[in-house]
Amino acid sequence: MIIRNAIKCKICGDIIESFSVHDYKVCSCGACAVDGGHEYLRRSAKSFDDIIELSEVVKNDLYFMCYMVERVARKLKQHNAYVVNTIGEAELRHLISVANVLHSVNPMQVEADWITEYNLQQGTFDITAVDKNLCEQIPAATAMGKVYMRLILATLQPDEDYVQAMLRVYNNPICEVIDNYNASAYYEPSYVIARAYNDGGF
Predict the structure, then answer these.
(1) Mean pLDDT score of the chain, rounded to an integer?
(2) Does pTM surpass 0.90?
(3) What does each C-alpha distance from 174 to 33, 46, 79, 148, 177 come to in angstroms?
């Protein structure tokens, strides 16, 4: 659910906000625009580096996104980073803006739709290929969705939104440690994982 759909232009300093569908707002210098109201997040800009994201999305939608990234990555035997990077920032914004609707759809269907729509390819990284002596039970995608949601929230920077934070976290090398289920990093309390992220390792 979108609480606020707004951006700030770094060039002219305007804060522009869209309040309803097709409420297309352009900043005074014409460098960027916003649209979609509380239904979807749409941005246009000469360069997205000229935008400061001010939108607010509920935490449940962030969890749904992390859960689906985990599901899709496992299905394709890919790293989570591959999924978010291939979908890209613009489409991730769209997906999180409609997450409250997708919550009610069968996750297997959402998974299949993402794979088809974004042409996601099969890989060779099988996160479930573990040493049974070291990992008796593989954590569920729901559990890992919560792990990553909490890490994103714990390390969220003042000038970034959930989508930017997702891309930052999933592309951090610490994910290779978290996703190694033969170790126990994923099982650590969320504050320990966040501290390890900030320190550059466990």
Answers:
(1) 91
(2) no
(3) 35, 33, 12, 11, 5
